[in-house]
Amino acid sequence: MLQIQSLQAGYGALPVLHGIEMSVGRNEAVAIVGPNGAGKTTLVRTLCGLVKPMAGRVLKDGVALTDLPAHRRAERGIAVVLENRNLFVELTVRDNLRLAESAGRKASGGSLRFSLDEVLTLFPAVKERYHSSVGLLSGGQQQMVAIARALLLQPDLLILDELTTGLAPKIVKEILGVLNNLRTQGMAILLVEQSITIAAEMTDRAYVLSVGKVAQEIRRGEWQAVLADDSLIKAYLHG
Amino acid sequence: MSASLVMQAILSGITNGFVYALIGIGLAVIFKGTQIINAMQGEFAVIGAMVTVFALEPAGLPYGLSILLGVISGAAAGVIIDRLFVQPMMRQRAGEESFLLLTIGLAVTLSAAVLYLAGRNSYLLPSWGEEGVIEILDAFLQIQALWLIGTAIIVVVGLRLFYGRTLLGLSMMAASMDPDGAATNGINVRRMRSLTFLLGGTIGAIAGILVAPLVAVNYHMGIALTLKGFAAAILGGLSNPLGAVLGGVTLGLLESLAVVGFPSGYKDVIALAMMIVIMIVMPNGLLGRVGRIGG
């Protein structure tokens, strides 16, 4: 579904990513793990069109996205929850979701379609605060709104950047439960995560990013071995 | 000091206040949609008024068509400025101060262009409807002032409905609040910014066309209008069109009532000193923090 070929990207003249090669298959959950400064967020921002690549290509279903602006990528079925959520905090939950719902009508995403009611059923806490200003919500509730909004874009690929950072364990559990549910329904997920435990729990395989390069690939079925042997964690993830 | 003198000052203050309000509304719209303080908002008014003046005479077009051309010219000026200057600077990630400098430069340039094309003369437009005045408690209000007040109210109500009830209005606000969040949610941020400038230019031109039957328009009027409109918008909470109306009327009343008790030369000093006091007491504007984000 998603192919990243020889991708080089960064800010100004300074490249952060160097020749990234990755792929995410249909119905697959893939993690990108790595320490701070590895280039994970730059990669996410490049995939969703907020950072223009210096070289290389991003393809979705064989079609090059490289020159498409971010709003057109959303129409192509790529939804992203950015690290700082990027919600419209002065608007209500309702208005945030309305905007996504409207954009989702133009999306050429996958077979999974989400109505507003279905999304609100997935996140009862969001339904309770439906008419509240997003800025008045807790971090966990905001994260749920961000995921709900992403689902209303009717994606077939969901990119999640540092989803669990700073959230209470109870909220993390609730959110991961929803994502697991989406995964079993066939949603492709690209999860950027610092916690290797969460990455192992949530995904089929992973790429370890270090200093802007893919340092290692954790293949399907290798998670147990990686968790049992902490050499990878020590080498790339700083414990 | 007679009661009729005070009443006359109040009516004049309200009329002037709605002029400032209409400029302030345009400023608020552009700030709300782009986070840019547009120091050339008054120039949109001059463009709209001047195009209407010249379309009416010497071109000889009907008044309604001339007004339409004036409004279109303001809207077009907004879009052209966005496409030629604002968008390229946005792509270079210019800071807020750069945009302020840009719009100050454009205001001076447009003023010089109007001087070149229209000369130093001042121009009045005919009243929109019936000429004349109405008497209220021994004081007088021009009928054109009612058009001005009515239009400003319609614009504010319309904007409130537009931003609060329509997806396009919400998208324009979203694009301004968080461009990255908007873009990744399928909103074309560049288009929203262009539409914001179109809306700001349209409101500016309407202001100019409404003012021109009351106050003669000339090449250097834009900067003065911008300053008063800016004061009105700040007083009301910069991104809230309703606040701009409250701010404009407050400023207009302060100016007019100052003249009742003091020599007219002091009117700006007294009005602006009072504004400073209000801003110290109410730093988020007359509508408070909530008013800063309202429609």
List the helices and strands and how they pair.
The complex is a heterodimer of chains A (239) and B (295).
Chain A lengths: L1 E10 L2 E11 L4 E5 L6 H8 L5 E8 L2 E2 L5 H6 L2 E4 L11 H12 L11 H7 L1 H5 L10 H14 L4 E5 L7 H16 L3 E6 L2 H7 L2 E6 L2 E6 L4 H6 L2 H6 L3
Helix pairs in contact in A: 3-6, 4-6
Chain B lengths: L2 H32 L6 H16 L6 H29 L4 H23 L14 E4 L2 E4 H23 L1 H11 L1 H5 L5 H23 L9 H16 L4 H21 L5 H15 L6 H4 L4
Antiparallel strand pairs in B: 1-2
Characterize the structure shown.
- The complex is a heterodimer of chains A (239) and B (295).
- Chain A is of the alpha/beta class and 239 residues long.
- Chain A has helices at residues 40-47, 70-75, 93-104, 116-122, 124-128, 139-152, 169-184, 196-202, 223-228, 231-236, and strands at 2-11, 14-24, 29-33, 53-60, 63-64, 78-81, 157-161, 188-193, 205-210, 213-218.
- Chain A has one domain (2-236): 3-Layer(aba) Sandwich (Rossmann fold).
- In chain A, the strands form two sheets. A six-stranded mixed beta sheet of chain A has the order 6-7-8-3-9-10, sandwiched between helices.
- The model of chain A has no long low-confidence stretch (mean pLDDT 90).
- Chain B is mostly helical and 295 residues long.
- Chain B has a single domain, classed as ABC transporter involved in vitamin B12 uptake, BtuC.
- In chain B, helix 2 (41-56) packs across helix 9 and helix 6 (167-177) packs across helix 8 (189-211).
- Chain B is globular and about 60 Å long.
- Chain B starts with a helix and ends with a helix.
- The mean pLDDT of chain B is 89.
- Classes of the chains: A alpha/beta (239), B mainly alpha (295).
- The interface between A and B is medium-sized, with 30 and 18 residues.
